[in-house]
Amino acid sequence: MSDTTQPSIGDLLSATVPMVRTLNLVYEVTTPERAVLRLPDQPEYRNHVGGPHAGAMFTLAESASGAIVLAAFGDHLSRMTPLPVRAEVAYKKIARGEVTATAVLGRPADEVLAELDAGGRPEFPVRITLTREEDGAETGEMSVVWTLRPNA
């Protein structure tokens, strides 16, 4: 009997994206509806105020956006390549300790795929919320616009 177990999206990204491994990101949830990643509290990635460096939080949020994109559209990689187009981040409160990023699609996946099927190159936002573990306060938000580039 052969083992047909597929690696999880978190396992796949941890194995193929060096920055994910560098920051020790933890994939809590990766579904087409929601991706939740956690950045452990690590002294080597703290900033001048004792929280995670803004670059580490940006990477956490961008990685959460990539995880939901792969969960939602990964079955279609033979015909398209997902690419981030632009990102905007807002840091709202000081983050200390572990930080969690929760990502959701800004457009229904079926709608995005219909546009791809019609010959378009769809763009869609992914919205990410950053929260700190100690009190659940929202420390930031990010929006990443992705596209599905049809493969030639």
Secondary-structure map:
Elements: H1 9-16, H2 18-23, E1 26-30, E2 35-39, H3 54-73, E3 80-91, E4 99-105, H4 109-117, E5 123-132, E6 138-150
Antiparallel strand pairs: 1-2, 2-4, 3-6, 4-5, 5-6
How would you describe what is shown here?
The termini are far apart. It is globular and about 50 Å long. Strand 5 (123-132) and strand 6 form a beta hairpin. The chain has helices at residues 9-16, 18-23, 54-73, 109-117, and strands at residues 26-30, 35-39, 80-91, 99-105, 123-132, 138-150. By secondary structure, it is of the alpha+beta class. Strands 1-2-4-5-6-3 form a six-stranded antiparallel β-sheet.
Poorly predicted parts: none
How far apart are the termini? 37 Å
Biggest sheet features: 6 strands, antiparallel
- What would the average pLDDT be, to the nearest integer? 94
Q: Strand-residue fraction?
A: 25-35%
What gyration radius follows from the Cα positions, in whole Å? 16 Å
What gross morphology would you assign? Answer: globular
**Oligomer kind:** single chain
Instruction: Find the structural class using helix and strand composition.
Output: alpha+beta
Total helical elements:
4
- List the strand order in the largest sheet: 1-2-4-5-6-3
Helix and strand pattern: HHEEHEEHEE
Number of strand elements: 6
Proportion of helical residues: 25-40%
